[in-house]
Amino acid sequence: QVQLVESGGGLVQPGASLRLSCAFSGRTFSGYDMGWFRQPPGKEREFVATIRGGTTTGYTDSVKGRFTISRDNAKKTVDLQMNSLKPEDTAVYYCAAKSIWTARYDYWGQGTQVTVSS
Q1: What is the pLDDT of residues 39-67, one digit of tens each?
Q2: Helix (H, G, I), strand (E, B), or coil: what is residue 64?
Q3: In this structure, how many other beta carbons lie within 10 angstroms of the beta carbon of residue 1?
Q4: What is the DSSP string of 8-63?
Q5: Fewest CB within 10 angstroms: 1, 20, 87, 91, which?
Q6: Percent of the chain scoring above 90 in pLDDT
Q7: 3-state DSSP call for residue 95?
Q8: Residue 104, SS3?
C-alpha cells in the first residue's frame, strides 16, 4: 500500500516562496507518476502539477512559470517549489500518486495548508 506524507506548508506573504515535499513509501517509487493537487477554501480540488519518469512535467496554467515540480527517485520524494505566491494560491495542497499503468490518482496524502496573505 502506498503512503504519502506532505510537509512544508505555512503562512507566507504575497510574492514569497514556499517548498512542499512529499515522502513516498510502500511500493517501488519508479512505478508511479506523482502529482500535486490543491483545494482552495469553498472550492473543489484541482490539479496543480504532475511529473512522470523524472523528466516529463505538466502544470495548470495558473502556476506555469511560478511553480516547479521535481522528484528524487533515490529519496522517494516529490517536491513542489512555489515562487511568487499569490493570495489565490491559498489552499490545502495534496500529494498524489498513480501507477504508470493507470489514468487515475489512487493514493493521496493528508494535505498541507498553504496560506498566502499580507
Answers
A1: 999 999 999 999 997 689 999 999 999 99
A2: coil
A3: 6
A4: --EEE-TT--EEEEEEEESS-GGGEEEEEEEE-TTS--EEEEEEETTTEEEE-GGG
A5: 1
A6: 89
A7: strand
A8: coil
